[in-house]
Amino acid sequence: MTTAPATRTSAPRPSSAPCSPAFCSVVPPHLLDRLSRAADPLIAAAARRTLVTDAANRTARRLTTVAGAAPVPAPADGAAAGAPRRTIHDAEHKTALPGRKVREEGGQPTGDATVNRAYAGLGATFELFRDAYERDSINGSGLPLDATVHYSREYNNAFWNGEQMVFGDGDGRVFLDFTLAVDVIGHELAHGVTQYTANLAYFGQSGALNESMSDVFGSLVKQYALKQTAEQADWLIGAGLLAKDVQGAALRSMKAPGTAYDDDVLGKDPQPATMDDYVHTGADNGGVHINSGIPNHAFYLVATRLGGNAWERAGRIWYDVLTGGELAVDAEFADFAKLTVAAARERYGAGGAEHDAVTKAWSTVGVPTE
Questions:
Q1: Residue among 309, 173, 159 nearest 230 (CA)
Q2: CA 288 – CA 278 distance, rounded (Å)
Q3: What pLDDT digit, counting tens, does each position of 208-261 carry?
Q4: How far is CA 367 from the centre of its chain?
């Protein structure tokens, strides 16, 4: 059993603090590492290529961070405030970004379903943040949403590189086209929201919180697009990405962490649901994709206890903490939990169902709030 982490007081992050975007991919390196050792040489080769490409992108991300990101372009004349500005590019199975422009805002659907799904997914994410949280794009100031599809060959990932979305087509044996899951699109763009707000460090518990924020809002993007209540939602991340012969439903389950897949090739989903099973590891930046199961499950418990639309009360509490300026970049689970309790109390009152739901959820997963 792992004891709960010591609590600390989170200091407000200065508004002038620089963003330090990480290379954030939806498929964790520990899973790709396992696939790279698969008996099937085609599966192993695709995984190895993906790992090499991801390593190069991480290096490029660090260099861009040092040099400084490109400035955000001003809206074009006639661009409507509160409307998305989407551009989709086709890498044509190469790795140079952004690739050939194939669809832009207001353009007609193309004959490529992948392009159209990417365009729709960017729009669905924009709409959730605009309609539910009054946020104008992921930076709050109308940031254009750019994406590249058909990246590399048999590329088993999708990622946010600090500036744009990138989607692989999958190898067809383990993973399918990464635009198939709208929650994956929402997940990766939510990394951008975190980048422009709390800027959570991508390591250990703060990194797991970073990943959990993306799973939370990625799931909410899907629920909002499908108009599902918390009870109707499947609470899966990446449902539809796994090929038909893979024994599994998705990459992660917020409802039941550790049950998303159990497959001879992929292995068994390693996510814990509570602090009793917290995983101490040096891999995956200290287990950011693994231990995110704990705050993920806490959000699921809050949302289902409150019922109704999860993006309303539960999502609003999480959004308030993410954007409120009090969440430290190196926050641990207990820091975040205490802030959600305070946010629920401030917005809905100390004796309300929301405050009770948040307190009980964190207690259930073993994270202290006092």
A1: 309
A2: 11
A3: 999 999 999 999 999 999 999 999 999 999 999 999 999 999 999 999 999 999
A4: 21
